[in-house]
Every structure is written in C-alpha cells, then in structure tokens.
Amino acid sequence: MKSKLEQRATFIERATSAFCCPICEQDCDFEPPLTLKCRNGHAFDMAKPGYLFLLTHGAKAKYDKALFEARKRLIETGFFDQMTARIISFIQEIDREKLQIVDAGSGEGSHLAHIVQMIPKDVLAFGFDIAKEGVKQAARDYADIIFAVADLANMPLKKIRNRCYYQYFISCELRRICADFKG
User: Using CA atoms in the order 175, 177, 182, 183, what is the torsion angle rounded to 10 degrees?
Assistant: First the structure.
C-alpha cells in the first residue's frame, strides 16, 4: 500500500503537464520519487507534507499557523457562503470537459476544497500561496488538490484557456494575472 506522500506524488505526476518552470517557463516532467524538473534542469522537490515549493526567491510571509486555523474556523461558519456560491455558479456555467481551477492565495485550502466538492465536474484544482504555513496545512487536509508555495505574480502554470482563477483574501491584481494566461 502506498504512503500518503506516495499517493500525493502520483497525483502531482498526473498533473505535471499543467506546470511550467517558475524560473525559465520551460515544460516540466515529474521525476520519481518527489521531483518536478524542467527541461533546463531546474528542480523542485515535493515537501514531506505533500506540497510543492516553487518560489524562486525568498519570501517572508507574515502569516502563521494560528492565523490559518482562525481563517478556517471563520470559513466553516458560513461567512463566505454567498461568495462561494457565486464562484461555483460561474464555474458550472463553463462548458469545458477538462477544467482547471486555481485559487490564487489559497491559504489553508478550505475555500478551494469546498468549491471542488460542490462542483459536479471533474476538475484539476491548484492552490497557490506564498505563505508556507497555509500551504502546509492545506496539503495535510486536502489530498485531492495540488498545493504549492508560489509567487502569485509568477504562477508556475502553462498558459491555457480552460482554467478558472479566483481569489478571496489577497490584494494583488488578479485581472492582471488572468490576462497573462489568456495566451
């Protein structure tokens, strides 16, 4: 029987074609047991909790485990249910066979997990955040979503049309990010 980490590695390996290198933007391949590697040799290992670390520079996030636990409790109260319902409604209107969803600033992953659970379509979901603590918690709690510590202004995904982006809590300009992916 595969360990939780091996199961996560298999899941990420199946999604490798969606990634590009955050350094040179080349296609990536998955090298067992736990490495995402581009054709120019830049390599990114999967951390033990099951997330990818795809930052190309140091980043000091001011968010800690307590903040993400509080955020998850707030989400569980239903405070964001109306907004989540609107996002789900929008996603359900997209007529695509294979759909990818990206939560830009996913934190501890509960929003994205709820959306994935509510959509009757088969989706490939990615959660990106610069805060390692949040991504670590997300990877621990939600095995059917790919989480990565990454720069939201330089998300390590190939530019394709069948991808839906959203954000809840971050202040960067998501319209600018989405425009980058219309190519």
Answer: 150
Cβ neighbours, 10 Å, residue 17: 14
* Model confidence pLDDT, tens digit, residues 154-177: 889 887 766 676 666 554 444 444
pLDDT computed for residue 163 by the predictor: 66
Pair 35, 125: CB distance under 8 Å: no
The whole-angstrom distance between residue 26's C-alpha and the CA centroid of its chain comes to: 19
Residue in the structure block whose two tokens are 């992953």? 109
Answer whether 34's CB lies under 8 Å from 26's CB: no
Length of the chain, in residues: 183
The letter for the amino acid at 107 is G
Q: What is the pTM of this model?
A: 0.84
Tokens of 183: 């190519």
pLDDT tens-place string over residues 55-88: 987 767 677 778 778 878 888 888 888 888 888 8
